[in-house]
Write a structure and sequence with these properties.
The protein has 7 helices and no strands. The protein has helices at residues 5-25, 30-53, 76-81, 86-93, 97-107, 112-119, 123-144. It is rod-shaped.
Length: 150
């Protein structure tokens, strides 16, 4: 579910007003309450920035997705099931799982750096595997006559 900035800010303000009312009844100095509010607001903004920029990154150990639109490919099984050409299916079927994971994440828009951080492999490894996948695909398309050799 997407992060709702306005809703979270409203919840934070309600929580903060209750907390400040309690602190005032307990006799806390107004200056200290305002300093606490500034500190809490900075913490809230930091969390909001994190939530706003956080990408939903699929865990590579479990690629099964429970909800998927017809055109969206969100796991390796769906990728293989979406291939209608038998030869291309064989090429992908014979590709190692890590390379398929890299290709799938790249198709989903993740950068090589993001993939390398999450999967704990070097960015060079990812780039090499993806290049290998592209080369294999190119040879496949050449064999079908879909693209012409230079």
């Amino acid at each position: 579910m997407a992060y709702n900035k306005a809703g979270e800010e409203r919840k934070w303000r309600q929580w903060k007003e209750k907390e400040e009312a309690l602190l005032r009844t307990l006799g806390m100095d107004e200056e200290a309450i305002q300093e606490l509010r500034r500190s809490d607001w900075e913490d809230f903004k930091a969390e909001r920035r994190y939530q706003d920029h956080r990408a939903a990154f699929p865990e590579y150990q479990d690629w099964e997705s429970t909800v998927m639109s017809e055109q969206e490919v969100s796991n390796i099984s769906a990728l293989l099931n979406s291939v209608s050409d038998k030869q291309l299916f064989e090429v992908l079927w014979n590709t190692d799982k890590k390379t398929l994971q890299f290709l799938l994440l790249k198709m989903m828009g993740f950068s090589g750096r993001e993939i390398s951080e999450k999967m704990e492999v070097s960015e060079n490894t990812i780039n090499t595997k993806i290049k290998s996948g592209r080369t294999t695909s190119r040879y496949f398309l050449l064999s079908l006559g879909i693209i012409l050799a230079n």
